[in-house]
C-alpha cells in the first residue's frame, strides 16, 4: 500500500568520483566505505533515514527541511579538511513511500538540484529556503532561477553559505526581489481594482440612495486586506505551484482578525442599510398613513443667514430677510434636507451687536450653526444690476468652516432666483444629480407665493417682527394676504402674530385657513400647525397625538422628539420627557444642547447626581465654550454650592466673548449675593447695568437689583427695579406675552404690600386678555390670597386655574394650585395636608428652596421638630444667606429649646435685614424678637 507523506529529500554524491575510480579503484572504494561510516550515523542523529545508495550517491529523507539542511551543514563542516568531498541538493515535497523506497517529484527535484552545488557545498530549492528563512544561523544566497530537467517551471535555487558577501547582496536587491516575485505588480493591480470598485460602489450609493457608509466600508475592507495580498504575492507570485508557508498560515488569519476588529470599531452603530424607510402610523383621527421618510443621519441640515446688501433699494433691503424664509420653504420639499433660518437665533445676533441681523462675520455664523448642530451654513450678498437680482452665495461646511461652494445666480424675479439658489445648494451639499433631477421640486412660487407685492409686504412684516413692532407686523401680513389669499405660510405667521397680540379669535381663524392650505406647507410645518391648533383649541389629547404621530412617522426627526419632550414636560410627565431627550441623543450624539436639556430635567426633579453628569458631559464635548462652565456654575448655584459655582463662572469669563460677558458677570453677582457678600454683589450688578449695551443686559441688571433689594428687605426699591425691568419688557415682548409675564411675576407688589396695585394690574389684564387666555389672571390672584389668607377667594381662583390648566393640558401649572391649597390648609391649621401639598410641589420643582422652608414651618407647628430641622437645613443648604430661611430656623430652634443656635440664626437674619424698609413686616418681626431676647 502506497504511503504519502511530506518529507525533505537530500541527495549527495562524492565530488570527482568517476575520475577517482579510474585512477585508484581501491582507494575510491575506501572513500565509499568512509562515506557510510561518517554519514549513516549522522543521518540517524538528525532524525533522518538513508533510503538507498545510488553508486557514490546517497538518497536520504528527513521529517523537516530544517533537519535536512542542518544535517547537510554538519556533514560539510565535518568533511571540511577531509579527502572525502561531497555536494548536496535538498528539496521538500510530497513523496510516495513504498517497499523501503521513495518516489515523487520531490525526489526528482532534489536529484536535479544536487549537481548545481559546488564542491563541499549545499544547494536548496526555494520551498526549502522558505521553511528555514526564520533560522538566523542558516545563511543562503540565491544563484538564480534554474531550468531543471523534468520540471515544468524554472525553480529559484539558493546556496547555503557560511557568510553573505557583498556580491551576494547585490545579486537580488530588495525591490528586484519583490519585482521578480511579482509583489509590486499584483499589489498595484489590486489597489487599482479596489479603487475602481470603490468608485463603482460610490456611484451605486448615489444612484440608488444607499447608505454612504457602504462606500467607506468597502474601501476599508479592501485596504485592510493589502497585507494579505502582499504576503500571498510574495510566496506565490512566481509561476508554478508552491506550498503554503508557516508565515502565511499565521499572517493571513492575523490580518483578517485585525481587519474585522478595525471594521467593527469604525462602523459600529453606523447604518449600512437604505437611507430611507417606510412607516405606517395612525393620525389623530385613527387613520393609517404610509410614508417614505429619510433617516436623520443622512439628512443635510443647513442654517440660512440673512443676505447682505449695499443697496438702498427698499425692496432689496426687505428681501434680505425673506430670501432665507423662501429658501427654507423651498428646500424643505426635499426629504434629504433639514433647513433652518438664523431668525430663530435673532436674540443672539442682537447680543453680539448685530441688531439688524446682517453683517455677521463667518466666525459668528459658524458658532451659531454649531450651536444648532447644522452640518452646513450659507450666507450671501444681494445686489441689483440692469433690472436683475444678483445673489452671490457661499456654502460652508460647519465643522471645519470650509467653504465648499460659491456661486452666483441671476433672475428678474425673486422666485426663480430662489429656485436657482436651491438647486445650487443641493449640488453643494453633494446630493446626486439623479436625485436633484428626479425629485419633485415645485417652484417656490407654487408653494410660497407668486405675488411680488405679497412677498414685499411679507418681508416688511418679518422686519417688523425683528424690530418688535407687532402692530406693523399684523398690518403688513394682512396686506400680504389681501394680495395673495392662498399664501399659506403668511396664515401661519399671522396666526402666531394674532396670538401674541391677544386676538384669540383671529388666531384660530388664521390657523383654520392655514390648515385648508396645508398642502402648500412643508410637512414638518403641517404637523406644527395641527399641534398648535389643537393646543389652542383646548384639545390637549389630540395635540399630543399629533406630535406622537410626527415622531412615529419620522422616528429620526429630532424636532419631533424635542416637541414631544416639551409636551411631556408641561404635562409633568418627566420620565417620558427624559426618554425623548435620550432618543434625540441616540439619534445624534453630537446634539450637545440636549445634554443640557437632560441635565435641567434631572435637576428639576431633584436627581442632582444625574444632572451633574450631563452638565459635565456637555462641558467635556464643548470645552472651549463659555456656556459649558456657565451651565455648571448655574447648577452649583441652584444647588447651594457657591464656591464651586464661582469657580466655574470664573472659567466661563475667561472663554467668553463680549456678547456673553454680561450674562456671566450677572451670574457671579448672584453668587456673591447668595454667599452674603452683599457689597460685592451690588458692585457686580451695577457694573452690568453701566456697561449694558442692549435691552437684554439692562433686564439682567434690573433683575439683579430687584433680587438684591428683596433679599436685604428693601422691598420698595425691589419693586422699583421690577417696574423698570417691566418697562423694557413691555417694549420687547408681544402684548399677550407681556401681560401673561406680568401676571406670573406679580409677587414684587405683594412683597411690598401693594395689594391694591396688584389687584388693579390683574383686573386690567383680565379686561384686556381674550378668552380663554384671560384665565391666566387667577394665577396672580393666588399669590395675593396666599399672602392675605383669603381662603374663599383662593378656592375660587383655584377653580379657574384648573379649568385653564386642563383645557390647555399645562399640568406643569399644577404647582401653583398645590401651593395655594397648601396655604389654605396652613391657614386652617391642617398642617399635615399642607405638607402633603408642598411635597407634591417638590415633585414638580425640586429646586424651589422655599418649599422646604414651608414644610419646616408646618412641621414646627405640628411640633415635629426633628422633621422640621431636616427641612429647614435643606433650605439653608440652598440659600444660607436668605433672611427668611434664617428667621424660620431661629423660630424652630427656639421652640426646640436650643436658644443658643436659635439666636445665631436670628442675628444672621437681622444682620441681612439691617437696611430693610421700616414697614417690612418680616424684618420687623425678626428685630422685635431679637430685642425681646436682649
What is the topological layout?
Elements: E1 3-14, H1 17-23, H2 25-45, E2 49-54, E3 57-62, H3 65-78, E4 86-98, E5 101-103, H4 105-113, E6 122-125, H5 126-132, E7 139-146, E8 155-161, H6 166-171, H7 174-180, H8 183-207, H9 213-224, H10 226-236, H11 246-267, E9 276-282, E10 288-294, E11 300-304, H12 314-331, E12 337-341, H13 346-351, H14 362-371, E13 376-385, E14 388-397, E15 402-411, H15 414-428, H16 433-438, H17 444-447, H18 452-466, H19 470-483, H20 488-500, H21 504-516, H22 523-536, H23 540-553, H24 558-570, H25 574-587, H26 592-604, H27 608-621, H28 626-638, H29 642-655, H30 658-674, H31 678-690, H32 695-711, H33 715-732, H34 735-744, H35 747-751, H36 755-768, H37 777-788, H38 791-808, H39 814-827, H40 831-844, H41 849-861, H42 865-878, H43 883-895, H44 899-912, H45 921-933
Parallel strand pairs: 4-6, 11-12, 11-13
Antiparallel strand pairs: 1-3, 1-4, 2-3, 4-5, 6-8, 7-8, 9-10, 13-14, 14-15
Helix pairs in contact: 1-2, 8-9, 8-10, 9-11, 10-11, 12-15, 12-18, 18-19, 19-20, 20-21, 21-22, 22-23, 23-24, 24-25, 25-26, 26-27, 27-28, 28-29, 28-30, 29-30, 30-31, 30-32, 31-32, 32-33, 36-37, 37-38, 37-39, 38-39, 39-40, 40-41, 41-42, 41-43, 42-43, 43-44, 44-45
Amino acid at each position: 500500500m502506497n504511503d504519502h507523506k511530506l518529507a525533505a529529500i537530500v541527495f549527495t554524491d562524492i565530488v570527482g568520483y568517476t575520475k577517482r575510480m579510474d585512477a585508484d579503484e581501491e582507494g575510491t572504494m575506501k572513500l565509499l566505505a568512509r562515506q557510510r561510516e561518517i554519514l549513516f550515523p549522522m543521518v540517524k542523529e538528525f532524525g533522518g533515514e538513508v533510503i538507498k545508495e545510488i553508486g557514490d550517491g546517497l538518497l536520504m529523507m528527513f521529517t523537516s527541511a530544517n533537519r535536512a539542511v542542518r544535517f547537510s551543514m554538519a556533514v560539510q563542516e565535518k568533511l571540511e579538511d577531509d579527502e572525502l568531498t561531497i555536494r548536496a541538493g535538498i528539496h521538500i515535497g510530497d513523496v510516495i513511500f513504498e517497499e523501503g523506497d521513495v518516489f515523487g517529484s520531490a525526489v526528482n527535484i532534489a536529484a536535479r538540484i544536487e549537481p548545481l552545488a559546488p564542491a563541499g557545498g549545499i544547494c536548496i530549492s526555494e520551498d526549502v529556503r522558505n521553511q528555514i528563512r526564520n533560522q538566523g544561523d542558516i545563511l543562503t544566497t540565491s544563484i538564480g532561477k534554474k531550468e531543471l530537467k523534468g520540471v515544468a517551471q524554472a525553480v529559484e535555487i539558493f546556496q547555503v553559505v557560511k557568510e553573505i558577501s557583498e556580491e551576494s547582496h547585490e545579486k537580488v536587491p530588495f525591490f528586484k526581489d519583490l519585482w521578480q516575485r511579482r509583489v509590486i505588480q499584483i499589489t498595484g493591480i489590486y489597489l487599482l481594482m479596489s479603487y475602481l470598485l470603490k468608485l463603482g460602489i460610490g456611484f451605486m450609493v448615489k444612484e440608488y440612495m444607499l447608505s454612504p457608509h457602504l462606500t467607506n466600508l468597502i474601501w476599508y475592507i479592501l485596504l485592510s486586506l493589502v497585507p494579505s495580498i502582499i504576503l500571498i504575492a510574495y510566496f506565490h507570485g512566481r509561476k508554478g505551484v508552491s506550498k503554503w508557508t508557516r508565515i502565511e498560515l499565521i499572517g493571513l488569519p492575523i490580518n483578517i482578525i485585525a481587519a474585522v476588529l478595525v471594521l467593527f470599531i469604525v462602523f459600529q452603530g453606523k447604518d449600512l442599510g437604505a437611507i430611507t424607510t417606510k412607516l405606517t402610523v395612525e393620525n389623530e383621527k385613527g387613520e393609517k398613513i404610509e410614508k417614505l421618510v429619510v433617516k436623520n443621519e443622512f439628512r443635510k441640515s443647513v442654517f440660512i443667514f440673512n443676505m447682505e446688501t449695499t443697496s438702498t433699494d427698499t425692496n432689496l433691503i426687505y428681501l434680505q430677510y425673506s430670501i432665507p424664509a423662501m429658501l427654507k420653504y423651498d428646500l424643505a420639499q426635499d426629504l434629504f434636507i433639514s433647513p433652518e433660518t438664523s431668525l430663530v437665533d435673532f436674540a443672539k445676533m442682537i447680543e453680539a451687536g448685530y441688531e439688524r441681523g446682517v453683517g455677521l462675520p463667518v466666525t459668528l455664523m459658524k458658532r451659531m450653526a454649531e450651536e444648532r448642530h447644522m452640518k452646513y451654513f450659507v450666507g450671501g450678498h444681494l445686489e441689483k444690476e440692469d433690472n436683475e437680482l444678483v445673489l452671490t452665495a457661499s456654502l460652508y461646511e460647519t465643522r471645519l468652516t470650509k467653504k465648499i461652494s460659491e456661486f452666483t445666480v441671476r433672475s428678474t424675479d425673486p422666485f426663480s432666483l430662489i429656485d436657482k439658489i436651491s438647486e445650487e445648494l443641493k449640488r453643494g451639499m453633494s446630493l446626486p444629480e439623479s436625485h436633484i433631477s428626479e425629485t419633485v421640486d415645485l417652484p417656490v412660487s407654487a408653494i410660497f407665493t407668486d405675488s411680488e407685492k405679497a412677498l414685499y409686504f411679507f418681508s416688511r412684516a418679518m422686519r417688523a417682527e425683528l424690530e418688535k413692532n407687532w402692530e406693523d407686523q399684523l398690518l403688513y401680513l394682512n396686506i400680504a394676504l389681501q394680495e395673495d389669499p392662498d399664501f399659506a405660510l403668511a396664515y401661519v405667521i399671522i396666526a402666531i402674530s394674532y396670538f401674541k397680540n391677544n386676538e384669540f379669535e383671529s388666531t384660530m381663524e388664521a390657523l383654520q385657513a392655514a390648515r385648508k392650505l396645508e398642502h402648500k406647507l412643508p410637512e414638518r410645518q403641517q404637523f406644527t400647525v395641527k399641534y398648535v391648533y389643537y393646543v389652542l383649541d383646548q384639545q390637549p389629547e389630540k395635540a399630543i397625538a399629533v406630535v406622537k404621530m410626527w415622531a412615529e412617522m419620522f422616528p429620526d426627526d429630532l424636532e419631533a422628539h424635542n416637541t414631544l419632550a416639551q409636551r411631556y414636560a408641561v404635562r409633568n410627565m418627566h420620565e417620558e420627557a427624559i426618554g425623548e431627550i435620550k432618543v434625540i441623543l441616540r439619534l445624534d450624539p453630537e446634539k450637545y444642547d440636549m445634554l443640557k436639556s437632560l441635565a435641567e430635567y434631572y435637576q428639576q426633579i431633584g436627581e442632582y447626581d444625574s444632572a451633574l453628569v450631563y452638565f459635565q458631559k456637555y462641558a467635556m464635548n464643548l470645552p472651549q465654550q463659555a456656556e459649558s462652565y456657565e451651565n455648571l456654575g448655574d447648577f452649583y448655584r441652584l444647588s447651594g454650592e457657591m464656591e464651586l459655582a464661582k469657580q466655574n463662572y470664573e472659567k466661563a469669563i475667561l472663554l467668553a466673548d463680549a456678547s456673553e460677558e454680561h450674562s456671566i458677570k450677572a451670574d457671579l453677582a448672584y453668587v456673591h449675593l447668595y454667599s452674603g457678600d452683599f457689597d460685592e454683589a451690588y458692585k457686580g450688578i451695577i457694573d452690568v447695568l453701566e456697561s449694558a449695551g442692549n435691552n437684554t443686559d439692562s433686564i439682567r441688571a434690573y433683575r439683579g437689583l430687584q433680587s438684591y433689594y428683596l433679599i436685604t428687605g428693601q422691598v420698595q426699591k425691589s419693586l422699583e427695579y421690577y417696574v423698570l425691568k417691566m418697562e423694557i419688557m413691555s417694549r420687547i415682548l408681544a402684548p399677550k406675552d407681556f401681560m401673561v409675564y406680568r401676571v406670573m411675576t406679580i409677587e414684587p407688589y405683594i412683597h411690598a404690600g401693594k395689594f391694591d396695585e396688584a389687584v388693579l394690574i390683574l383686573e386690567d389684564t383680565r379686561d384686556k386678555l381674550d378668552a380663554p387666555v384671560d384665565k391666566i389672571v387667577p394665577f396672580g390672584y393666588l399669590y395675593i390670597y396666599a399672602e392675605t389668607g383669603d381662603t374663599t377667594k383662593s378656592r375660587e381662583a383655584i377653580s379657574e386655574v384648573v379649568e385653564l390648566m386642563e383645557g390647555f393640558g399645562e399640568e406643569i401649572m399644577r404647582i401653583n394650585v398645590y401651593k395655594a391649597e397648601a396655604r389654605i390648609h396652613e391657614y386652617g391649621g391642617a398642617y399635615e395636608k399642607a405638607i402633603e401639598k408642598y411635597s407634591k410641589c417638590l415633585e414638580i420643582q425640586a429646586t424651589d428652596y422655599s418649599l422646604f422652608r414651608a414644610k419646616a414651618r408646618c412641621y414646627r407647628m405640628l411640633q415635629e421638630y426633628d422633621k422640621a430641622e431636616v427641612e429647614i437645613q435643606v433650605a439653608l443648604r440652598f440659600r444660607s444667606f436668605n433672611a427668611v430661611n434664617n428667621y424660620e430656623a431661629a423660630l424652630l430652634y427656639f421652640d426646640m429649646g436650643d436658644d443658643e443656635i436659635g439666636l445665631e440664626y436670628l442675628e444672621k437674619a437681622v444682620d441681612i435685614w439691617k437696611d430693610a424698609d421700616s414697614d417690612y413686616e418680616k424684618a420687623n418681626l425678626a428685630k422685635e424678637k431679637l430685642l425681646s431676647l436682649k
